[in-house]
Amino acid sequence: MRVYNFSAGPAMLPLAALERAQAELTDWQGSGMSVMEVSHRSKAFIACAAQAEQALRDLMGVPDNYRVLFLQGGATGQFAAVPMNLTRPGDQVAYVKTGSWSGKAIAAARAQEVTLEVVADEAATKYTTTPAPASLEVPADAAYLHYTPNETIGGVEFGYVPEVEAPLVADMSSTILSATVDVSKYGVIYAGAQKNMGPAGLCVVIVRDDLLGRARPTTPAILDWTQMAAADSMLNTPPTFGIYLLGLILDWIGQQGGLEAVAAANQAKAAALYGAIDGSDFYANPVAPEARSRTNVPFTLADPALDGEFLAGAEAAGLTNLKGHRSVGGMRASLYNAMPMAGVEALISYMDQFAARH
């Protein structure tokens, strides 16, 4: 039985893409092998990777002066790779802290011996807000400004793109491919795949050409964007199954009508769930309305003692992985691209029934 999987990641993936992978699993393109067994240097797989890259470029409108890299280590690997590729020890960098993941990126950057300034920290609101655009004062000599457009754990999302002179670096792990993006506003975009792009293990990096060639000599080759770009992301054996499945998911997004159609569907799902929460005196969302995530929706029950019963009943109803992150508590429903409106409606119906009983 397929369930409605509200996990924040690894997350629910499009059934059509999974079924296509299932059908091709033991005999990919008539090779008599699965795609996981084919050499990454074979003509067939090189074409597969090139097709996935082109589909990503087409969907996101990636300009020609950007490179698309398929790397390993997830977004966490890029927390260190960003300063390794863009700075020398002692260089000034700027970060915005809006929750757990941006906090982890800050800690990893500090370990790279940079002069780091947190230009905004939303700790005063317990990370339930995003900073006002005018409040971001970035040092003139900053090598880059890093921010996390959507905080998966806290359910906080920026409603704007920061406008700064320094190259803008964004961890888009939880929102990439969920809406249209003007890539030209960014110097670097990176994202772990396990939300909207495929299985865990693949990380996509989109980097502007003029930011290549700056890596520290001590940067490991697999984290060196310049070396990986020169090798078409195949300096080492890439995550072949992740790249293959990304291609299938990009095809599926195209069949839905592209990012504009996906964005409209995601907005409708979020609006329905927030409407149910706001219309109830039994459930609450802690995030400021203007900073609410379209993707990750945390909510609490009026009586936390009922959390266990709520989760057990949801599981029995086929609504899985609703438990909030251990650092936050409560519930969290992640509404990635593959979550249909029917899943959100089933969750709302269950929430209504549970509230009525209590």
- Rg from Cα: 21 Å
Count of discrete domains: 2
What does the largest sheet look like?
7 strands, mixed
Please name the fourth-level CATH homologous superfamily of the largest domain. Answer: Type I PLP-dependent aspartate aminotransferase-like (Major domain)
**CATH structural fold name of the largest domain:** Aspartate Aminotransferase, domain 2
What's the helix-strand series? EHHEHEHEEEEEEEHHHEEHEEH
Low-confidence stretches are: none
Spatially, the strands of the biggest sheet line up as: 2-10-9-8-5-3-4
Q: What's the number of helices?
A: 9
Would you count the extended β strands for me? 14
Quickly give the CATH architecture of the largest domain: 3-Layer(aba) Sandwich
Overall outline: globular
- The helix-and-strand class reads alpha/beta
> End-to-end span in angstroms?
29 Å
Helix content: 25-40%
Strand composition percent: 15-25%
Topology, element by element:
Elements: E1 4-5, H1 15-24, H2 43-60, E2 66-71, H3 74-86, E3 92-97, H4 100-110, E4 115-121, E5 145-147, E6 150-151, E7 156-157, E8 168-171, E9 188-192, E10 203-208, H5 225-230, H6 240-256, H7 258-278, E11 283-284, E12 296-301, H8 307-316, E13 319-320, E14 331-334, H9 341-357
Parallel strand pairs: 1-13, 3-4, 3-5, 5-8, 8-9
Antiparallel strand pairs: 2-10, 6-7, 9-10, 11-12, 12-14
Helix pairs in contact: 1-6, 2-6, 3-4, 6-7, 7-9
